[in-house]
Amino acid sequence: MLVSVLVASLCLLLLMYCLFKSRASVRRLKEDVSELKRENEALSAKAELLTLAERISNLGTWEFFIGSKIIKWSEELYKIYGINYKNAIIDAELNERIIAPEYLEKVNKELQAAITNKTTFAVEYQIIQPNGIRRYVLGQGFYIEKEDKLVGTVQDITQQKEAIFKLKINETLLREAELVSHSGSWEWVDGKEFILWSDEMYNIHGFLPHSIFVNFTVYRDLVHEEDLQVFLKNFFKARREKALFKINYRIVRPSGEVRHVLSTAEYKKIGINNFAYIGNTQDVTELREAQVQLEEKVIELNRSNQDLEQFAYVASHDLQEPLRKIQAFGDMLKDRYLTNINPEALDYLNRMRNAAERMRILINDLLTFSRATRDHKNFIRTNLGELIHKMVNELDFTIEQKKAQVMINANLDADVIPSQLMQLFQNLMENALKFTNAERPPEIELNGFVKYGHELPIPDAVPGQSYAVIEIKDNGIGFEEEDAEKIFDIFQRLHSRSEYSGTGIGLAICKKIIHNHSGFIFAKSKPGEGSVFTIVLPRKQVK
Fold first, then answer.
1. How far apart are CA 175 and CA 203, in angstroms?
2. Which residues of 127-157 are buried (b: 16+ CB within 10 A; e: fewer)?
């Protein structure tokens, strides 16, 4: 009985022990499952992060098991290759077909070298997507000997390569532009001894590109000794103030040849922490020589102008004095001997006096034309309406004689030479009062308004510029449309002297005045229907 109780107790103890161990095992198993679940979640998160990183960097991954020839691609690599990953069967043939034919040997050589040498590889090449589009990629990876496989990445670098190509093109264009313009560029970084020169900088200073190292000491020895002090003063002042500088000076090439150059530079930040002077130096020797020649021509022109002024003085005084005497003596003959002069002699005397008067008027008109050609005074902001009213008041006697009606509607201003504009309006007004229709009294309208260049039927007008437009309209005899251009030529007449007096210079003076103002003048007309003269002047003169 005792033995039975003892056995039962032992069995109970054993059962309790097994139950305890079982619960402990279940608890450890649950803990293991939880840990495995956490690790799986962490792996999933890392896989998602890796996929996101691949997508952001345009980078795909791959594995190649050498023995079994099995190839695995990441999802992003499918996208880079332009292949639908759901339908594609990856094998060595497809892998090679993706690579552009001219790069295939190069890529295989790099991969084989990595396997043989048990090392890494990196190679740039082109791929051809199924749609025919080429892309630049960078392939990198290494050989894992233990698993006898290659693992690697493929990154799409098409944008970077295109940017590099564009940069090279721009550098080539810059070099060509510098060569054509004889203009070199340079850079001097703070704290650096040497100055970086472009190829054209070497050419300008008489050196082969990159044949010498340039620092400030070397460069100052190239500056002409007569210009050195001015050069140093301007340069050190600008550098001390970190300001822009622009210096004209001469340099002496190693051959002894002297060249004129213009250097311009600006102090600015480059990169993250560096500052530098970025400059440009242009060979202006030919320009300086042309300037000297131009100055000589200006001296000759001034001398010629003085001769013309002397001629004008002679014309206005010495030539007109004999004309006045001819007229005066003609009047004396007519007054004193009128009863003794036969009709034929009196006719000759009148013709002589009229010819002298025409000569006097012609000389005065030529002098006016000469002044319009040479007289470039300062432009003054002027109310053109007030100027027109003043001109009309000065012609009031002629207007009254002709019984003309004059209507003025002009209230606008512009930069003009008032005396010349007064002459212009007067000439056009006198023409409107001269060439009138005998069957009706003259009616003359002077209208002014403002228009922009693009609103005018004038190809040479500046689109965005403001213009003052003055129209002078009459109801006179008019003229043929084909004569609208030639009436502005000097000495051009459409009518005989017996019909209408004049020298044929008035409208040529108008054209010259308009030219002085960088403006336009044109006319429209029909015989018997009057004329419209249009004046177009820039409201603001640009020096």
1. 12
2. bbeeeeeebbbbbebebeeeeebbebbbbbb
Q: Tell me which residue of 184, 411, 359, 145 sits closest to 279, measured CA to CA.
A: 184
Neighbours of 124 (CB within 10 A): 15
Distance CA 464, CA 539 (A): 12
Supply the DSSP symbol for 316.
I
Half-sphere exposure of 115 (CA within 13 A, CB side): 15
Segment 484-494, tens digit of pLDDT: 666 666 545 45
3-state secondary structure of 509: helix
Q: Which two tokens stand for residue 76?
A: 């992003």
CA-based max dimension of the chain: 199
Highest mean pLDDT among 21-25, 206-210, 344-348, 525-529: 206-210
Structure tokens at 509: 């003076």
Q: What is the mean pLDDT of the chain?
A: 80
Identify the sign of the CA torsion 212, 217, 219, 221: negative
Residue 431: exposure state from Cβ atoms within 10 A (0-12, 13-18, ≥19) = buried
Residue 281: its pLDDT value, please?
92
**284-296 pLDDT, tens digit each:** 998 888 888 888 8
Spatial separation of the C-alpha atoms in residues 155 and 165, rounded to whole Å: 18
Note the helical H segments in 99-215: 101-117, 158-181, 199-204
Integer Rg of the chain from CA: 48
CB neighbourhood size of 184 (10 A): 23
H helices present in 317-439, as ranges: 320-336, 343-374, 384-394, 396-402, 418-434
163, 151 Cβ separation under 8 angstroms: no
What sign has the CA pseudo-torsion 368, 373, 376, 380?
positive
DSSP state, residue 274: E
* Tokens 């003259």, located at residue: 442
Q: Is 62 in a helix, a strand, or coil?
A: strand
How far apart are alpha carbons 358 and 355 in whole angstroms? 5
β-pair type (443-452, 405-409) = parallel
In this structure, which long-range contacts are made by residues 352-358, counting pairs with CB atoms below 8 Å and at least 24 apart in sequence?
352/326, 353/326, 353/327, 356/323, 356/326, 356/327, 356/330, 357/327, 358/503
| HSE-up of residue 336 (Cα within 13 Å, Cβ side) | 6
| Average of per-residue pLDDT across 371-389 | 75
CB atoms near residue 297 (< 10 Å): 10
